[in-house]
Amino acid sequence: MAQPSSILHFSGHQYLRSRLVLSILSGKPVRIDKIRSEDKNPGLKDYEISLLRLLEKLTNGIEIEISVTGTAILLRPGVIMGGVLQHECPLSRSIGYFLEPVIMLAPFSKKPVNLTLKGITTDKHDLSADILRTVTLPHLQPFGISEGLELRIKRRGASPGGGGELQFLCPIIKQVKTLNFIDAGKIKRIRGVAHAVRVNPQFSTRMMEASRSLLNRYIPDIYIYSDVYKGDESGKSPGYAMTLLAETTTSAIHCSEAISQPGVAPEDIGIAAAQALLSEIEKGGCIDRRHQTMVLLMMVLGSEDVGRCLMSEPTSKTIQFLRDIKAFFGTSFKIVSADQSNLDCTQLLYSCYGTGYVNSNRTLA
Amino acid sequence: MDSQQHKSHRPSSKKEKGKERQHGFNEKAFAPKSGRKADRQGRRKVEQDQTRLHVPLVNRTPDDDPPPVIVAIVGPPGVGKTTLLKSLVRRYTKQTLTEAKGPITVVAGKKRRLTFIECNNDLSSMIDIGKIADLVLLMIDGSYGFEMETFEFLNILQTHGFPKVIGVLTHLDLIKKAATLKSTKKTLKKRFWTEIYQGAKLFYLSGVLNGRYPDTEILNLSRFISVMKFRPLIFRNSHPYLLADRIEDLTPRELVRTSEGKCDRTVTLYGYVRGTNLRMGTKVHIPGVGDLDIQGVSNLGDPCPLPTAESEKRRKLTEKKKLLIHAPMSDVGGIMYDKDAVYVNVPGSFSRGIVDVPQGEGEQMVMDLQDVDATLEDRVAQSQIRLFGSSSKTLTVNRSDQLQQKPESEDDHDNDLSTEGDVAEQSDLENSSEGDSDTEAGSSTLPHINTGRTSHRTNIRSLPSSGTARADIEYADSDSDLGEDEDDARTKLGHRIQFDEDDEDIPSDEEADMLMHGNEDSENDVPKWKANLSERAASASSKSTSKRKNWIKLIYSSDLSPEEILWGKSKHSEVEIGEDDFLQVKRKHDVDDLEGLDASKDPLDISSLKKWEDEEMLDSIRHLFITGGEGPNVEPASGFGEESEDQQVSDDKDDAASNPEQLTPDQVRATALAAKKEVLKRKFDEQYDDPETITEDFYTSRKEEINQQLAINRAEFEGIADGEARALVEGYRPGQYVRIELASVPCEMIEHFNPLYPIVVGGLLPAEERFGYIQVRIKRHRWFARTLKTNDPLIFSLGWRRFQTLPIYSLDDHSIRMRMLKYTPEHMHCYATFYGPVSLPNTGFCTFNSLSREASGFRVSATGVVLDVDRSTKIVKKLKLTGIPYKIFKNTAFIKDMFSTALEVAKFEGANIRTVSGIRGQVKKALPKPDGAFRATFEDKILKSDIIFLRAWYSIQPRKFYNPVTTLLLPDKSWTGMRLTGQIRRDEGLKTPHGVDSTYKPVVRAARRFNPLIVPKKLQAQLPYASKPKLMKSQKAQTYLQKRAVVMEPEEKKALALMQQMRALRKDQVARRKEKKSEKKADRAKNLEKEDAKKSEKDKERKKEVMKMAGMQRKREAEAEGGRGARKRRKT
């Protein structure tokens, strides 16, 4: 009975998450093939399967077909349900990998999301719990998603042992507000979290001291929290990391993170984090580079008005994301240099006409 | 006239009173006298203020150049719709239409165009019209009153967003008596007001003169239409749509011929975009046809443009009379649209050079075809690229064949045009998109340019920019145009050729870019790069490309992978060089590592962080902090600095305006100072102004916000000159005249096309393309005669769609479960769940049981609103399982006949059960012996005669039945969907099958027999007397009174005998009286019978007479009806 809707076709294992998210939001079925077909170890990895399971929990009526070899999947999206959920993340990836797509989907669900994720909270590949809490969620605020949006770090778990636990709470919204964020402002404060689990609590202080030594020259308003988890809440493996974020007068946020490595002193970690923060600041824009895709997605989903945002140059992920957005939503961005006269200007002004996406999953009664 | 003199006023003889002598405004006059009055006045003022307020809604239709207002003329047949339409069209265009079919667009004023459409009496048309009309002229026959269709239409309007309605009362000349006329007007007005709102405008049109309504009345009506203000309706404000005013079939004739007209067609529809922007990649729904994919959209020149100041100035006096009208489906304006040809009538002298004179669509088309902006050589080269192989050849041959068949006169005319072609070349094209398509159109018809003519048939195929949308390659080409708005001026190459070169073009961009990046990034670890750099730089500089990356072009119209775009990865040619081998491997490696993980965080590159050890580097970003002050060269972003959101729009523009011109340092300083002062002033104002005056109420602030956003929307893409590129980013704006190409349209749409039935193209949101279970709140219409039954087919009009589906009604049962209802409740809302296309929550709908004209009574059966959309449903209905005890212990009993297997019992373990008498219990465990029996415990001992109930809930799913109402595909537009079983039986003459078990049989209940209570003798003896069973047997022996002998005295004997005689006499008397009475009764009955017989005889004769008369009348009527078409009317 249902009309055969056109299936979008992609290949490769890269950008799997964003494609799945776009498919679910746009309602267009997607077929992804050649997933590591050339690899020694072909097909979907365990964390990808786990992600698909998580999406299955989050939605109703979703159909996921995985080919026998695991190198192709067909996803027919359903309705995003939300509600109280639990998910055990495999130890091959940290929780950030799973939470990122969920954050993009959660505001458009039928019931407010209350998701508990267990696994690794901080590792070197994905956004750590601290970045998600202090940077990712504030990025949603200009879109009108703020009340009741929360990420609770119940337990920390460093890799490889894991044992961390995050609780993600997200309200539902009717429509995303249009973003007009073209004023980067100036940095007014720097905040940070230095956490340490199953190591000497002194480590966090040492990281703080080191990073302060570099940042103190710029601004006095620096406050770095020392977050030491002990006992049951500290997971199964030792580790420590430092997350820094700089907030501007217009509440644009840039962040950086450095994670403990074997044989590297905590001071070096602190310095590296501070230096990374400086290079982020230098790149400019109103949006942190790691959150470009999320912000662009929300811009596309905005009401049928022109949304504008100042950002640094797109990352490779962002470029592919823009192309995927065009495939799924038919929306393309206008990307021009923020300063036409200045040839060295690396900041770009992204503007698009929102699709007027309305949360059709929301219940009225 | 001049001689007439008015009598001058006499000066007042009275002396002015003290109060009147006062000059100026008397303040006391309007001041309230009492506190109470003051209070009342205050409240009234607030009330008036509140009525002004409405929920602020964004109007997506632009204020400049809006689409024509759709004015629908609705009413029952014979009420004068066509007459009104013709009168109105004549009022606006001074032309008389011979036949008015389809939408007719006219220019009504400086800022307003109107599209008139007449709505026929078909319910489907009324639904479609109700969804798109901005203004409804609701016509009512004054001599007849309201008809059912009118009320039905009003109900449809109510559920789909109420547009403005003006009532028009006609046929008032048929009412002769003035008093009757007055009262009729009054009653009709009252009824109309209750339907619309108190004080709704109702027009009265008197009789018809020369086939039109009186000019003054029409003038008044047109004035009302022209000042009408419209409020955006939510559904239309979130969906693009258009009312097609023209339809063309583009299917190759040969294909149609070979398939005998049965092949799917390619169809183009023309109309003004309304609602929101029409974006690419959306599906559309044509009510009456179905969901269709848009093959392509192209913007056409406005066939009925609004007058501009310039066009007014240039307009000649002779053309003052010729007012614009666009009505392709009816014969006006010198253009006739036949099924597959357009005939253009060019009146009088026609000269090519005059561009500003508003030309008809056809003339414009012919001229556009001749606008050539490239040389012949280019065209030939292009055409070789475009038209590959032999297909082009056959095309030309065909065309030349057609040429020869053309009549002589048209030939002349076309030659005229061609000679004037060079004039047109100088006169510039309006926009490049036109130009683009023109070149393409030209390229395909190139070989014939010498003859200077094209046949009409090809004209249709190659309408302005029609070619762009059709061919894939060309479309991709327009993609590439997106970014070219800046570069075009520099690289003035032909678009097509440039695109072919893109492969080399883009990398060169990056190479140049790599130069920049290579210097600042630490590329120390790859020394080979540097070795190569100088060569590359040389090659890059040789090509004249801009230094900055064109991101739009790189991202959207190149095949490069993201990494290649970012880092300028070496191309295949460079791989062959071999020098880069080392680099190649390394990059490949780390890229893989990254991608393999789909990581969102790139690992810290320690080497690149090294630069921050340099003190100078650290100082270079000091200006980015608030403590840093103004940097040496202020970053553009911080140029906006500290300014509040609302100022950004203007600042942005200012920046753009001021940047290109080089300012002297003095000026820069001055402007900076001015800006600083401005900021300070604003801060001061914020602090010291009265906060109450600043804080606006929610309403005004929200409105202000909306306006600001709209201004941004307008400004953002204004700069993109290329129409196609702009459309790619923001879609086609409302008010643009577009042509939509649809593929695989059912052939019936073309074959049974009737201009009297409107074609609405409704854009669908992505969510609306999907299917699912939709939960709605529904209420049966109180005028609909019957109740609605679960799983009976119902026709929904929801969103753009009309479809039939099978709803299940339900009610919320104590917020625990959704309980199915077999019928809709009376006067109450209930829920309904059905399978169908998704609609956004809060969309209104109405339903019908039948759309046919024959259906009697009010056809709108229910109305409601969408609540929820899901992929599954949770509706349950009650299921009662019964069983009987076959063995009873104390509180335990064995129950049988409830389940058939032990497995079923296992599923119900722990379930609550109950006896009829109300003793509650629980299912415990299955028993081995009789299959399905189980042990159950109760709160008390149950009886063997008790029936045991288990109340369960059985979940039901709505059937997946979705049947779109495809009225436009039918020759007579009368659609019948799925019928009810009863209807089918009636139609087919089938008998209802009757199950044996369904018949009611007399219930035979065996009388319950209770055994006598026997108390053992021993126990009896011990009982106290009161409790002892009493022996109550009748006495057998005679009593003394019965046994004794009575001997009477003689006096006593005598008295007794006398008494007996008197009693006997009395008895006899009564008997005789009774006999007499019955005799009389019989007599009377006989008489009555006789009279009755006489009466019935008379009656029979009278009836015979009446039937005879009736039969004759019917015969006459039938004869009359055969003569003229039956006009069916249903009185309210």
Automatic annotation (TrEMBL), chain A:
Coiled-coil ranges from the UniProt annotation: none
Protein location: Nucleus, Nucleolus
Annotated ranges, domain RNA 3'-terminal phosphate cyclase: 9-335
NCBIfam families: 18S_RNA_Rcl1p
Matching InterPro entries: RNA3'-term_phos_cycl_insert, RNA3'_phos_cyclase_dom, RNA3'_phos_cyclase_dom_sf, RNA3'_term_phos_cyc, RNA3'_term_phos_cyc_type_2, RNA3'_term_phos_cycl-like_CS, RNA3'P_cycl/enolpyr_Trfase_a/b, RPTC_insert
Domain RNA 3'-terminal phosphate cyclase insert: 183-282
Organism listed in the record: Crepidotus variabilis
SUPFAM superfamilies: EPT/RTPC-like
Family: Belongs to the RNA 3'-terminal cyclase family. Type 2 subfamily.
GO molecular function, a single term: RNA endonuclease activity
GO biological process, one term: endonucleolytic cleavage of tricistronic rRNA transcript (SSU-rRNA, 5.8S rRNA, LSU-rRNA)
Protein name in UniProt: 18S rRNA biogenesis protein
Annotated keywords: Nucleus, Ribosome biogenesis
GO CC terms in record: nucleolus
Nucleus is among the record's keywords: yes
Entry superkingdom: Eukaryota
TrEMBL record, chain B:
Gene3D superfamilies: P-loop containing nucleotide triphosphate hydrolases (3.40.50.300)
Biased composition (Polar residues): 396-406, 440-453
Highest rank taxon of the organism: Eukaryota
Catalyses which reaction(s): GTP + H2O = GDP + phosphate + H(+)
Keywords: ATP-binding, GTP-binding, Hydrolase, Nucleotide-binding, Nucleus, Phosphoprotein, Ribosome biogenesis
GO biological process annotation, one example: endonucleolytic cleavage of tricistronic rRNA transcript (SSU-rRNA, 5.8S rRNA, LSU-rRNA)
PANTHER family hit by this protein: RIBOSOME BIOGENESIS PROTEIN, RIBOSOME BIOGENESIS PROTEIN BMS1 HOMOLOG
UniProt record similarity statement: Belongs to the TRAFAC class translation factor GTPase superfamily. Bms1-like GTPase family. BMS1 subfamily.
Protein name stated in the entry: Bms1-type G domain-containing protein
Species this chain originates from: Crepidotus variabilis
